[in-house]
Amino acid sequence: MRPIDLSKLRLIYEIARAENMTRAADKLNLTQSALSKALITLEDQIGTKLFDRISTGMRLTPQGERLCLFAENILQQASSFERVFYEKEDEAEGEIKIITTPFVGAVWLTPILPSFLEKYPKIKIKVLLRSDNIDISEGDVAICLFRPHQPELIQEHLFTTYIRLFASPLYLKKFGKPEKPEDLDNHRLITYRGNYYSSYGSTNWVLNVGREKFGYPRESYFEIDSLHGMFNSCLYGIGITELPDYSAVLSSEFIDIFPDIIGPETPMYYVFSKRRKNSKKIRLLLKYLKSKGK
């Protein structure tokens, strides 16, 4: 049996996450050639190929998948231990690293943090925005959907948003207001990646509401790969879009075109490791965010 150099586990993990040597090298602060040499050396040492080099990047082999799962588990445990080890649990000081989605971070989280930071001046906040595949081991807290089958996590419900359909006064002045969902067939619709579904909320409801009898969706008029982009596209009158009903959205100049019709719901949770259950700063932030609603 050939020993595995455990110091190389992060290399495997980052290459697998990025599926690309250049991006992984950037994350690890290495040159691409240095990372390639390190991978080749590791594969030679253990006598096993870990990645297939394909046209689109890097793909784990079956043995590579096994090692990557092991690496992820070890790195998560190490990261969690470091935070617990260095933290003074009874003091409200130090850094809190929050991982969430770009829209939640920009539209909901950032505007409500200043008063928390003013109240607790010894706490510093770092917000990491991730569009997909939130990795809780990257931070102290995640604000995201419920994560099933993970008993090692504490998951506190923060709020639930509901999808609604919005248009700007500029658009409605030019194209008129739909009176019922079926009228959307004759309107310009803004979507996220067209007829696409994201685990962070419906991103195709506007294409399907009122189309149940047809069995297929409407066509998108304008696609953009960002909820913030959908917000701005709607603001400038490009079309009708669906957005979660955060207070920042409801307080904008948008018109809720079907106020009596509520779309899919998205419950959001405050998620952190059970090892951090006694952390004063994490508990203080949880209490504060719960008090703010959506």
TrEMBL record:
GO terms for biological process: DNA-templated transcription. It comes from the Bacteria. It comes from Candidatus Odyssella acanthamoebae. Keywords: DNA-binding, Transcription, Transcription regulation. One of its GO terms (molecular function) is sequence-specific DNA binding. Belongs to the LysR transcriptional regulatory family. Residues 4-61 form the HTH lysR-type domain. This is HTH lysR-type domain-containing protein. Pfam families: HTH_1 (PF00126), LysR_substrate (PF03466). The keyword ATP-binding does not apply. The keyword NADP does not apply.
